[in-house]
Amino acid sequence: MAFFKCFKKGTVTILEDESDDRDEGTTLLIGAPLLASEVSEVDNSLHIPSWSQEVFCQLSSFKKSKSTGRDLHSTILQLKSSHHTETDSLGAFELLSDRIHNGAVNWGSVLPTTGESTFTEYYWEWLEDVLSRNTQVLKSAGLYNAVFASLFSYDRHAPVVRAFCEYWCPATNTLHTSQGEMSISLWDLHEIGGLPITGRFYDEVIPSAESLNRKDHKGVSYIPHICRYLFLAYHKILQDSKGKSGVRMTAWIKYWY
Question: pTM, whole model, 2 decimals?
């Protein structure tokens, strides 16, 4: 069983025994929640009034239209954020293709990407076990098909990946092309990958020691016992890892198999 203590402000330390010193445990930085100080304080309503806004701007890399000789402009449907810093700048968006054209950056001779050649030992066995044990939960969350898809290998084409990167605009999450702004819609992602297109932001943080050690009036912990075992597993894997730079996915899977 894992025990949680706060030896230093802004951290939580995982201990195997409650009497262990800080050096014997694994210390993690506490993440500040983006939505609220406590998960229980977040209601089910949307925390921003509108998820998108329309802005009128010039499309980068395509300054003049061949037919009209004028700059290409488009009405952009921009996704708003609940926690990122917003900007009122409506100038032309700079793309990677602009920086390549200006000589600021360039592609190397090799495009390193992870694809069909990537193999993680025990991943298939681990994921098949996860899918079989949590079928209903994953289907209820709308994630089953997306997780199931990772069991297979897929081909990739380097020039297509490069072109996508060059004309992708991170400010609008769309592709800026000579035909205007375009992208795969959220409905396409839902149909192709089975991903849910509704819901709230997923806010992942490391909770404080006080939150992890809370108990109700009957002395029962708020968090399930399995959460303590998962923290303890992370601690043991990190202690056994060389360099202790972090727990890799391969080490996590191998631990359970």
Answer: 0.45
